[in-house]
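Record type: monomer structure entry
Structure origin: computed from sequence
Chain ID: A
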Amino acid sequence: MITPITRAEFETFWPTFSRVMAAQETYAFAPDMTLEQAYQLWCELPLKTFVYMEQGEVLGSYYLKANAAGPGDHVCNCGYMVSEKARGKGVARALCEHSQQQALALGFKAMQFNSVVSTNEVAVGLWQKLGFEMVGRVPKAYRHAKLGYVDTFVMYKWLANEG
């Protein structure tokens, strides 16, 4: 079940969040971020943040926010995170599909991922299966903890029916 996240749910999700940050393989967030900083970044700054729960356990989360202001405020941006035990079980797909529905309900017309790490092949493949196009490549834009400098992709999907 996907619902708006609570503070208590984020705190339960914190071990997953902090492991992803510490790994430095997918997110350009400070690896030593505190729980308070992470909560503000993931839950307070975005427009909406949701959690995927199954049998009382937090398996994943995503945030949704405008990607830009003014004339670009019709394009949203999302970030997704899934616990290790939930990977490969359709949680990321469910979160992404839910985020697209929420984006449309909130008046957004498109979704853009600004920095998908090229070595995150599972995510890249899933986003492509869900209709996102690679519209750009930024060479050596991410300092991967194990692989050094790797490229990132800008991925985009028009969500609205009209032009």
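Annotation 1: Residues 35 and 126 are 29 Å apart (CA to CA).
Annotation 2: The chain is about 30% helix and 35% strand.
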